Amino acid sequence: MLLDPVLGFFSNDLAIDLGTANTLVYATGKGIVVDEPSVVAVRKGNRRGSRILAVGKEAKWMLGRTPGDIVAIRPLADGVIADFEITETMLKYFIRKAHNRQSLVRPRVIIAVPSGVTQVEKRAVQKAAESAGAREVFLIEEPMAAAMGAELPITEPTCNTIVDIGAGTTEVAVISLGGTVYARSVRVGGDRMDEAILQHIKRDYNFLIGLQTAELVKITVGNACQTEEVESIEVKGRDLVRGIPKMLTIDSEEVRKQISEQLDAIIQTVRIALEQTPPELSADVVDNGIFLAGGGALLKNLDVLLRAETHLPVTITDDPITAVVLGAAKVLDNLSLLKEIILE
């Protein structure tokens, strides 16, 4: 794919963080213009085939609340496309929304993807974006984008260690001189934690809640470390024994125990990355430490846990949720940098 020398001078260029849980879109000259859940509501079963009812926030509100012929779908799983047609529809909606619903605009698009994606998965993302109306599509790795969004000096001969924890994947990368020295992607993230909380409540209390409620529990009382002060939250759901709706109180300590397996997987991934880092760069890690990005970085005391496990400085980036899309946006205006980090 040839790079046009005027890339970055078109006001309709877009940077997209195509996340498992949320999609963020940055438009040149406008900033972040879309921040919505990666969810599409579809009505099935009519004679003309499936019909799209809602995309984004409105569709997420329908999750778990729809009648039998309406399905709320998350077309991305573990950071990659699981349903191509629905992803294409969702991207088309977000691209049009970014351009005030002007259907004739065909932007150049930079999309951040997990570092562990296969060639087939890369082509699926490119094809979906092109089908959604993009004129040209460039892919960059999420950890690289997150590091740029966190204002790390990625082009200097120093070690930048970034851990990007999303809903579907956790990415750990060691970056130096504008290149990735080591990258590892594991398909563990916020979604697995939500599922673990849901299954715990179902198994131990015979009480059924939805994934959105499990996510709320994680955000409200979830904690990576054991603390003296135990928080609690009341959740609404259904008693599976009596079959009636009721309230249940969940505390932070039991939530911590249920998400410990996912946290252990993240810590192990970080340890492997540190073991694979060249000795000269390891010295920089001692000084610069590890930077956390992604929505998962907001889990209470995750930085404290990583600091205790690695004995290294751990810093949460200023705005971990937007780090990837802001980093991808920087590439829109920097042709030389794009040539260095683009995924072929």
How are the SSEs placed, and which strands pair?
Layout: E1 14-18, E2 22-27, E3 31-37, E4 40-43, E5 51-55, H1 57-62, E6 70-73, E7 76-77, E8 80-81, H2 84-98, E9 108-113, H3 119-131, E10 136-141, H4 142-149, E11 160-165, E12 170-176, E13 179-186, H5 190-205, E14 207-208, H6 211-221, E15 232-239, E16 245-251, H7 252-258, H8 260-276, H9 279-288, E17 290-293, H10 302-310, E18 314-316, H11 323-332, H12 335-341
Parallel strand pairs: 1-9, 9-10, 11-17, 17-18
Antiparallel strand pairs: 1-2, 2-3, 4-5, 4-6, 7-8, 11-12, 12-13, 14-15, 15-16
Helix pairs in contact: 2-3, 4-11, 5-6
Kindly provide the name of the CATH class of the largest domain.
Alpha Beta
What's the overall average pLDDT, rounded? 89
Shape: flat
Structural class of the helix and strand makeup? alpha+beta
Strand coverage percent: 25-35%
Per CATH, the superfamily of the largest domain is ATPase, nucleotide binding domain
CATH architecture title of the largest domain: 2-Layer Sandwich
- Count of extended strands: 18
* Residue share in helix: 25-40%
Please tally the helical runs, counting DSSP H or I stretches of 4 or more residues: 12
Low-confidence stretches: 1-10
Number of domains: 3
